[in-house]
Amino acid sequence: MKSTAIVGSMTMISRVLGFVRDIVIARFFGASEGTDAFFVAFKIPNFMRRLFAEGAFSQAFVPVLSEYKETQSTEALKELLAKTAGTLATVLFFITLLGVIGAPILIYIFAPGFDAEGSRHDLAVEMLRLTFPYLLFISLTAMAGGVLNTFGKFAIPAITPVLLNLSFLAAMFWLSPLLDEPIMALAWAVLLAGIAQLTFQFPFLKQLGLMPKLSFDRQHAGVKKIMKLMLPALFGVSITQINLLVDTLLASFLVAGSVSWLYFSDRLVEFPLGIFGIALATVILPNLSKSHAAGKKQDFSASLDSGLRWVVLLGTPAAVGLFFLAQPMLTTLFQYDAFTTSDVGNASLSLMAYAVGLPAFILVKVLVPGFTARQDMKTPVKIGMIAVASNMLMSVTLVLFFQHAGLALATSMAAFVNAGLLFVALLKEGAFKPQPGWLMFLVKVLLANLSVAVIYVYDYSALQWYEWGVFDRALHLTLEILAVILLYVTTAFLVGIRPRHLAFKS
């Protein structure tokens, strides 16, 4: 719980700066062809980062690293780090080289709706050649973060993304006025941020005496084991990202601004997902790996149970809040200068659709480690294939009726398919046995959520939010969110929910 709080608080700092970044992007560039081009150029390496670095690699690397830490000598551990870092860096270098050379092909694949002769396509290609090397640097950063997390140093990896947001802000204020195409400053910001985030890890690795000396060796036993675990995990742990990518692909065929509307609404969903969901998943994986290595099946199951209770307790009100406050939040954060009221209305629709799936997005983050900690990568892959197929089917169908909002709704529904199948599989395998008291717990959480409904019912009109200035918007939104939190926490306490009832086993 302490580690989750540390990661969550550090992530909150990054997410708040991320909002500042997005506010500035919206004010400078709005929802235009230029922003559409950048978001696609940034989404490609960012998607691969989440797929390779934070997804498959981390889920395969941390259990093997934990095993070496518990059972091998310090020299063997350092050798594993050196061989893994060297092999990873070499593979990523060639992938990056191919990505830069093949940028036009990648843009065509990921955004086929961009006219091959149009400005969006050409600008996206130019940007991708700057943003793609981010994959190399951020993947090595993820490896360094995995080492620090395994040794209980959660704060540094969690605060590192702040550098990306600072890089964006610096580029927009100081670099963009100097460029012929000002929006190109965003692409330069991504590249510089990747370098900064990697070098930021070095002093802390040196403090642990674990700064690796790069050595390429695919035949090393630990490296082979990581690679073996990575291949199926590559798909299984990043289903949500694949689904979001499908959204971008289909949105490229819709009216200009659709990609940007999805981006800004997704950013708001990422806030609770990052603060709580990713933080919880980051902490629970080493904890579950340790319990599995020690053969403590009851502690393993109890930790999963605690994680799921935290998801229900905090994920549900976050989803409800995002749904009912979609328009006020987007108005307060982004509706200035180039970002119009029409943009707010369209982005609100996709935000409400994404909010429906927030609990499922978080559940997937918590449930997948229940398999990867036991080095079972195949089951999440099989389930992931079903989730992706269902998302594609629903996206193609719903986009016809609800345009970009239909894409967001399909992603949310597919997340529930994914989470539900993962949960059932853990039950069937006997890895998870629910602790007593779940029914009463769900009733208490429901009562706590119903208690705050009166605040949403008597919210101000959409026109009132548009008429207010930035100060009044921020003041009323802050007071409304604080009132919701206070009433929810008070009600949860009165009905008998206590933090000690949700503590992790270790």
Overview of this protein structure:
This protein has 506 residues and is mostly helical. It folds into two domains: 1-235, no CATH class; 237-506, no CATH class. The protein has helices at residues 2-29, 33-71, 74-101, 103-110, 119-131, 134-150, 155-159, 162-175, 184-207, 221-236, 239-251, 258-293, 297-324, 326-334, 341-356, 358-367, 369-372, 378-429, 438-451, 453-457, 462-467, 470-494. Helix 13 (297-324) runs antiparallel to helix 16 (358-367). The longest helix has 52 residues, at 378-429. The chain is globular. The relative contact order is 0.12. The mean pLDDT is 81.
Question: How many strands?
Answer: 0
What is the H-and-E element order?
HHHHHHHHHHHHHHHHHHHHHH
Assign the structural class, choosing from mainly alpha, mainly beta, alpha/beta, alpha+beta, or little secondary structure: mainly alpha
Envelope shape: globular
Number of domains: 2
Instruction: Give the averaged pLDDT, no decimals.
Output: 81
The helical percent reads: over 70%
Largest sheet, described in full? none
- Distance between the first and last residues' Cα: 11 Å
Q: Helices and strands in order, then pairings?
A:
Elements: H1 2-29, H2 33-71, H3 74-101, H4 103-110, H5 119-131, H6 134-150, H7 155-159, H8 162-175, H9 184-207, H10 221-236, H11 239-251, H12 258-293, H13 297-324, H14 326-334, H15 341-356, H16 358-367, H17 369-372, H18 378-429, H19 438-451, H20 453-457, H21 462-467, H22 470-494
Helix pairs in contact: 1-8, 1-12, 2-5, 2-6, 2-10, 2-11, 2-12, 3-6, 4-5, 5-9, 6-9, 8-9, 10-18, 11-18, 12-13, 12-15, 12-16, 13-15, 13-16, 13-19, 14-15, 14-22, 15-18, 16-18, 19-22
